[in-house]
Design goal:
2 domains, Alpha-Beta Plaits, homopentamer, 9 strands
């Protein structure tokens, strides 16, 4: 491939301008992150070694192509990016994609994997889930419901952790009341960490090989560690047939910054 | 490889015309999809990175070769195609092949993997099953039999999901009556989803490492998710030693469209 | 590599003539397949993608080299070949090798992997077993012994299936009488399929990570499926810690035909 | 890539001088290794085969680049290096990195993997943990507390072993008193090895798929072997769902020496 | 790489002469194989496909380099070689290395993997153990002690089998007396095979992910098979959490002969 024409570079400059307005309007973003019935996809990728042998200009153009693609899809889906390299096994980059229709996510990811940069990535794994109204909160005591409404501290939360969970058959055989009691104990254990560890739950059953994806954001990693340890000590934990495997740990990072690392 | 001769392009144009009439007559298709004793094979493939480095013309010819092969086999087998890229791990493309003789399927797949395009694919896995008359329905109450005859809504069902299942030894040790009772509870839980989630069962024991392949089609993915969750809550679910692993999720897509993505 | 000399082609032609007489005399073959104390090895191979980039002539010579090797060993070992491509995961070709001395098998396979063609194959897995006199039949009732002597239908049996089996520790802790009773129930379930599904058992304990290799040949795949399902329903099945993984499914095919596919 | 300019070599010489003062001041090092709230990361790498085909000069410059990077980060993190090749599966090199902030470790490792040498490494796995004050010692008898203060013998401890551990759900369901009793028995079994086997514990829950990383250093490998065997014989051992997998065994070796092996 | 100079060939010839005296003096060899406190390492390797594309002369020189290396280390370690190709999965070559210090083994293997030939090998796995005085024999009856002293038949024992073993937590929780009783039953079952199957035990706990490595040599493979089957039928066998996985089966072969196969 040759990228010699000045015209091409001009197009590229145009793309970079477009990318500056990439993020979806704040209101839309908030809706996708809080409404139920929204699909969340976690996709990890690993960079192959050949990428680094490309001439610098090719890499810059390749990165611009990805930015253009994300911009193009920003009306339909929300793409957030994470740097996993150095923290997670066999993964350099993670996308969290939110969409109302999973086929939109597929079209975006499929197009992404077909970009010049995408062809240098190996897909490391995909997890899909759908957001739902809380299943058990209605059965919790009022005091707990109030505590659950405490807002997390604002500020940066650089670390993100994704833990897929699969329940055992016994769990699903319990009636709603029994599961609510167990989830109340689980929630009680989690309360002290509400302020510093943000959490979002996705329901996965049937969409992949797990039942839930739990997503965490925190600035205080040791709080997160203590939260998970607290959750291990309640009875509900015994019903987890799989917890992690993989545990994905990364830092939230704008796509631009991650891609620039890859374009250096 | 060089593809310079105009004559070759002419042959290619001819193939493209042939491909337009590819799908089997509707009656044959219906028979293969509904009769018992028909073998169903699910084969996934992943595209290697070298494909994209081929000159455009080579890719177009390669795609035409595949279309010609499918056309050639259309009298004996039924091939349906799915785009898995962006939804399933380590798989870009899936074929569902129906045939009365599994060696026909083998000959087709073997020839496919030997095409110019096939040589750029890595086979990701194969699952085989055979369709059979319902095993337990005869023992169900009449009212349930009637409900089971409700037709699914027509219309497009873009999502397809494949879930292989392996029962535990205890399940097979149960007598027919006990299994029928458990399957009746299972079927009861599935009834609310009959209209929006289409389902087909294949029996696999001995043909590969699972006992069943369950295949689903739906336009409403959340209904499918709720169906699987409902099935997890009945007693029969405890006898699943394996459920998924992999769960294959994709969208139904004419071979032409998928291949054209690969020929862009 | 260049294969330009006419002399070489002449040698090649000679090899092809030799290959025509390759199969061992029928009597020897029968002995190796029926006597006890004979080692059976199942070896699967996958073709790499580079093979197809070789010039046609190189591939023809490579195939002839393999045929010559098989011919050379035909006095000591019996090699049967199967096409697995399109039916089994990650395997294109399988050899079943019978020999009185396992080191002969090793020398043959080692030489095969060193041929020009062999260097384009990735070894997918090896299973070894030894044939023994029946362990439990002596304890069966006379009527069953008679039924077991029924000959299978002659005719082609195109499908071959290999299922490795590992028993649990409890099985080996049972005494001979208890195991005989369980195997009698097992054999009773298998009797209806004696005519259409041929079966051969190899004992593997210590030679690899399984206890038995069961090998099946059949023209009627659905009978085989029903046989395995019947065997799942007897008590002995609960003592299988591993059954399959992999299940190898293929079609019997003369080496010439398989290799010619690879030489097209 | 060409490395012809004498100027470049001069820069290189400068780097080598800097590297000579690389290790962090002893006081800082001690703090990072003994304080609580410090993150420890174990990262293994495997060298690809292409590295050895680079011209010698390129390799020397590549190694100097890594040394420069380690030097640059020495104010924030502590990097220790181990040769795993020849002792551990699929791993040539291991870093143990200590940092107060895990994102510093990420930035260092990410930069390392982006160096010329790093691009020839395949990341083999990452384990993260955080140091904490002892959990159970407060509940131990005074005599045991005294014994625990015995200093290990000084001198070289060339062997290092890393064993990740995951506890079962039952362990976490035990109350503090029960766990203390079990850990007292565990500690009692370990006492005879305090002098010759140095040990450090990291808490991992939530940060990866294990609960603990245990790190050992010893000159007397058979003592270490006997220590682990002694620990297998106490009741607490039954609560280990995973112990090792992988067990990483290597020898402590200055980065310079390891890299020089790779630059020969 | 070019190997044109006659001088180089001369050096090579010299190496070949040295190699002729390679094996350690018989007395040293005997000591390393019988004393306690000696480390045994089993290392398997697989040849890559590129090796065969090297010019013949390069391969000859590469092999000579390995022979020279083994010679150079012969004063400190004992290296025995086995051909695994054709008998074991994903392994062509195995070394059994005995050393009094495991870091010597590491240095040898590390240097071996850095040779020209080593760079064409993929390391398949490493198992380490240490020889110890028998643990249970002291508690056996005198008659059994006498039987254990029977010498194995001399003569060639071409087959070698390596079976790693991991005990369950329950085994280690048994007291010495209980374990001795179980090992006495185990030994009783093994006695009939003492003459034809030679056996050596290595203790691995902590050094890798198994507890023991059992190494067998025999000329009569069916005896070995029957021995393992007999051992499966005693109570001690129920405490094996892992037995094999992998089972390594090969034939003893002088390094020269194996390497010559690789240099053809």
């Amino acid at each position: 491939m040759n990228f010699r024409s000045a015209g091409r570079i001009a197009v590229l400059a145009g793309l970079l301008v477009l990318v500056a307005v990439w993020p979806a309007p704040a209101a839309d973003r908030e809706k996708l992150l809080t409404e139920s019935g929204v699909y969340g996809t976690f996709a990890t990728f690993q960079m192959d070694h050949d990428w680094w042998d490309l001439p610098g200009e090719s890499r810059v153009i390749s990165v611009a192509e990805v930015k253009g693609l994300v911009e193009q899809w920003s009306g339909k889906i929300l793409v957030e990016s994470y740097l996993l390299r150095g923290l997670s096994d066999h993964a350099d980059l993670m996308f969290r994609v939110h969409a109302r229709t999973l086929s939109d996510t597929q079209q975006f990811l499929s197009a992404f994997m077909g970009t010049r940069l995408g062809r240098h990535l190996t897909s490391g794994g995909l997890l899909h889930g759908v957001s739902k109204k809380p299943t058990y909160v209605a059965g919790f005591p009022e005091s707990m419901k109030t505590e659950l409404q405490v807002n997390g501290e604002s500020g940066s939360r650089p670390y993100a952790i994704v833990i897929p969970i699969k329940k055992d058959a016994e769990w699903w055989a319990l009636d709603q009341e029994a599961r609510t009691a167990l989830m109340q104990e689980h929630t009680q254990a989690a309360l002290p960490y509400l302020k510093t560890v943000k959490r979002k739950l996705y329901h996965s059953t049937g969409l992949d090989d797990v039942d839930f994806i739990t997503y965490f954001e925190t600035e205080r990693l040791e709080d997160f560690h203590n939260l998970v340890r607290a959750l291990q000590q309640v009875k509900e934990f015994r019903h987890n047939r799989r917890f992690g495997h993989p545990t994905l740990l990364g830092t939230m990072s704008p796509l631009d910054e991650i891609l620039e690392k890859f374009a250096q």
